[in-house]
């Protein structure tokens, strides 16, 4: 009777062995799954701190294996020279995942969604001392091993600050929505600029920002074609900038800014075109009581007279055009530094020329 039962006993022993192995594997996977966020967090923190001149950390990381993604909670990246209140980068949530739609096209690429990122750029920063492009690329690849094909930014903020000016200059764009598509050219577009980036936001003073750009980021120095408009900004919001840079302020006015430029093979070409309307610089009763007294009033009166002279009597707008030109391929300088420097100088010059330099090119009393 025992012999007929032996095959069944061996069968159930094998089933029990398989069950135990499966249980061990499941327990191992659970342990790995529980430990994985901590492992990834330590790895990310290590890579952030390897970026020269920076310190960084993330507060937490969630793993979503079912969709091939991980989520970073509160990423902090600070220059070692940054004041604590203005770190270079803060991201509330960063979702990094596989772009599944691209798999149907035979490409393994990633998509990134950033919620409420904040970037602070300080005027005193020397861009030439920034980490090299290779250092930034290495850090980004460590965080996202796959090539990024889609980037989405929700409710972002970009601020430009000059803490050495009195009053402090604080210019910023809020509520930024950015969508960048086909960055890795998964669509295999034959265009010179196969990727598209769209951006909207709200500026200081209630301005409405809109920008569209076609770009090829696959080149060592990307090619791009950008058009931008900033409409309806209240000039009163820029008085800290005017005070710190031109020693004047305004009582009333609005500014619209239009810009278009291209970057092709390292060569920049384009323009910045500001329109200032309803400008009022002088209020004697108010200004005579302010710091600076009579001299301040006289200075503002001169600017006010100038504004009246160059304002088109039909449109009541002050307008000028500032060209953008520059080559960023000089091996002796940082291409990124040159790029940012040309744009910064163009936009700052646009303000100054709108309020002063046009006087040299016009005869007082004559309209446009």
UniProtKB/TrEMBL annotation:
One of its GO terms (biological process) is regulation of protein targeting to membrane. InterPro entries: AsmA-related, DUF748. GO terms for cellular component: plasma membrane. It holds the Pfam family DUF748. Keywords: Membrane, Transmembrane, Transmembrane helix. The chain crosses the membrane at residues 20-40. This is DUF748 domain-containing protein. It comes from Mucilaginibacter pineti.
């Amino acid at each position: 009777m025992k012999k007929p039962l032996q095959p069944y006993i061996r069968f159930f022993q094998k089933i029990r062995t398989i069950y135990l192995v499966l249980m061990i594997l499941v327990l191992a996977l659970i342990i790995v799954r529980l430990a994985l966020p901590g492992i990834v967090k330590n790895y990310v923190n290590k890579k952030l701190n390897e970026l020269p001149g920076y310190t960084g950390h993330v507060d937490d990381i969630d793993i979503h294996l079912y969709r091939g993604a991980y989520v970073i909670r509160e990423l902090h990246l600070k220059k070692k020279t940054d004041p604590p209140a203005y770190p270079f980068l803060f991201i509330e949530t960063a979702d990094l995942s596989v772009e599944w739609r691209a798999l149907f096209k035979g490409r393994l690429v990633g998509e990134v969604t950033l919620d409420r990122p904040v970037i602070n750029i300080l005027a005193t920063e020397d861009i030439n001392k920034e980490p090299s492009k290779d250092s930034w690329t290495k850090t980004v690849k460590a965080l996202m091993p796959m090539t990024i094909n889609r980037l989405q930014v929700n409710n972002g903020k970009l601020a430009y600050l000059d803490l050495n000016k009195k009053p402090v200059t604080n210019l910023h764009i809020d509520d930024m929505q950015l969508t960048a598509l086909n960055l890795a050219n998964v669509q295999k577009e034959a265009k010179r600029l196969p990727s598209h980036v769209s951006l909207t936001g709200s500026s200081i003073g209630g301005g409405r920002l809109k920008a569209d750009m076609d770009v090829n980021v696959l080149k060592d120095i990307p090619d791009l074609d950008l058009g931008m408009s900033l409409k309806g900004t209240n000039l009163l919001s820029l008085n800290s900038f005017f005070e710190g840079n031109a020693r004047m302020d305004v009582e009333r006015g609005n500014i619209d800014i239009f810009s278009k430029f291209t970057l092709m093979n390292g060569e920049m070409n384009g323009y910045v075109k500001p329109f200032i309307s309803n400008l009022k610089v002088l209020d004697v009763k108010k200004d005579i009581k302010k710091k600076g007294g009579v001299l301040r009033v006289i200075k503002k009166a001169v600017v006010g007279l100038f504004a009246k002279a160059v304002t088109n009597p039909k449109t009541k707008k002050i307008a000028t055009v500032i060209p953008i030109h520059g080559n960023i391929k000089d091996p002796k300088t940082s291409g990124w530094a040159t790029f940012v420097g040309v744009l910064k100088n163009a936009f700052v010059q646009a303000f100054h020329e709108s309020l002063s330099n046009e006087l040299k090119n016009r005869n007082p009393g004559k309209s446009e």
